[in-house]
Amino acid sequence: MTRQGLISRAPFLRQDFAASLVVFLVALPLCVGVAVASGVPAELGLVTGIVGGLVTGVLRGSSLQVSGPAAGMTVLVFEAVQEFGLPVLGAIVLATGLLQTVMGVLRLGRYFRAISLAVVEGMLAGIGLVLVAGQLYPAMAAKAPDAGLDKMLGLPRGLAGAVGDGRALASLALCAGTVAVMVGWKHLPAKVRTVPGPLAAVGLATLAVPVFGLQVAMVEVQGLLGAVQPPPLSAFAEFADVAVLGTIVAFTLIASAESLFSAAAVDRLHDGPRTEYDRELTAQGIGNTVCGLLGALPLTAVIVRSAANVQAGARTKASRVLHGVWLLLFAALLPGALAHIPLPSLAGVLIYSGAKLVPVKSLAGLWREQRGEALILAVTAVSIVAVGMFEGVLIGLALAIVKTAWEASHIKVTVIDKGAGPVDAYLSGNATFLRLPKILDSLEALPKDRPVRLDLSGLLHLDHACRTALENWAERHSADGTEPVRLTSGAGAGEPAGTPAG
Q: Which helix (H) or strand (E) holds 425?
């Protein structure tokens, strides 16, 4: 085929080719860093990135979104590896992928958009806090505690111990330098910024180690084929454990929500085809199924890589497929290069990524405008740190449901008392059991020695508990010799208390 014929069939090949190189350079240090932070061989991060490009990348859903191992799943994956072991991780990821695929086929992807944004942001904030705290330990050449709260509480003692340790100080300085490069990279000239910040930061840290003779920990390499270990059949026997099933549910919900929220964010960055949410969920599921079969990390759509893809000028899904090709070539031809990457620099990349998950600026604005949403966000984040990922998300979802139910049951009680004659009381809004105490307090304060007319025609909803309570109140309210309470509902027909209009 001639060059012109190739261009006519792939009119955006040049833009997609250039964008794929940018995404590859962004993805490379993140794939390795997420794997190391998750407690698995570094090569498995590359395997997940390759699957994200070559498998999920070719499927329909979101055309410009890029998938791979995500910092947002790091804490959950680390906990799973520590509790169940690496072989079971593959089985968990496989089950997660199958569940996502089924949900996509059943067209459930669109319903993830109904998840409270405050819960999702709180989840990411909690992950970010635990991730930052956890990565400060390898930055200090120390071992991190397992629990999120212990990570937080142990930091002062860890920092104090690092002060008198030359190797720990060198490691901490290298991590701090990596973070400083990433923070300042966006302020450099555009020509310099053609090299992605994470790659530049890790590259400079890698050069600094031999130049300054630093004694720091390096990435351990065991080869791509050695790292890929499909889950044995015995790993699936662990599905009898409720904790494993809970982890599968957590993986499924969090990976799906993160991917689909990322898709919505990426759609705002370009004017191309919009995301087909059900197809995207299916694509993520197929990708995770393959990752599980290979014993690799779970994949999600990653906003950092996706935004880099759009900003680099990508026009079609060819860019994300090609980025998977470059990751595969690197893993196959240059695996030994990973051994020259210092661990403190990867910790710095993840500290920077984790900090960006904590919405400090938006939280202040949210507190001013919607304190209930801000409270859900904060409680979700704190619960994830204090209790755990799955439990924290459940607490956040429960709070969001309670808040919604409370707001949906808004009720207004208006009393008009002219001092003589009947007392008129009007109820408007939604009368549910949640607001029953308020309703009864207002009605029981009405005088018992005068006729009362209770108008329910302004109610949008009246649940069974409220209706029963109002009828009981009406029957017992009036004093002897006083006209019974009259209830008005529906089209405004008045009925005695014993036969309320319905």
A: strand 423-431
